[in-house]
Design brief:
about 140 residues, 3-stranded antiparallel sheet, 3-stranded mixed sheet, about 35% strand, elongated
């Protein structure tokens, strides 16, 4: 069993308050987040972009693992995840995560590429965590 930790601190009201978010590793150490960072253009982080980064990195690692099971090694796996937050049922919900992949994989046929990218999309632990529609746009470069 693996356990990793993240933490957050919030002070004030929803719109005028501010918060910080940190990770166990220290990669994020009291990074600022808040209403205007989430719903506006103010610099800082927000939960949706953190979920996007987690999803993109998890998918990329899952794809690398599955490629290895097919005796393939990628030269490059570049993944972006766009997470959608929408008003739903009187509140807000993450409704979608769209993965956009460009990969260079010597020796991979389009058929194998399509198969392994779907397996990675469906099998990545973060995909399994999200209660959202997960889509994939994959390009073999």
């Amino acid at each position: 069993m693996i356990r990793k930790r993240g933490s957050a601190n919030w002070q004030g009201g929803l719109k005028d308050g501010t918060g910080t978010v940190s990770t166990q590793s220290g990669v994020l150490d009291k990074a600022n987040y808040g209403f205007n960072k989430r719903f506006g253009d103010e610099p800082g982080t927000n939960p949706e972009e953190l979920i996007g980064a987690a999803h993109a990195s998890c998918f990329s690692m899952a794809l690398s693992k599955i490629l290895g099971e097919h005796d393939l090694v990628a030269e490059d796996i570049s993944t972006e995840a766009t997470v959608t937050l929408e008003e739903k049922d009187g509140g807000f919900a993450v409704t979608k995560s769209h993965l956009k992949l460009v990969a260079r994989i010597p020796g991979a046929s389009q058929e194998v590429f399509d198969k392994v990218t779907k397996m990675a999309k469906d099998g990545c632990p973060i995909s399994k965590l999200l209660n959202a529609e997960i889509t994939l746009e994959a390009t073999l470069a």
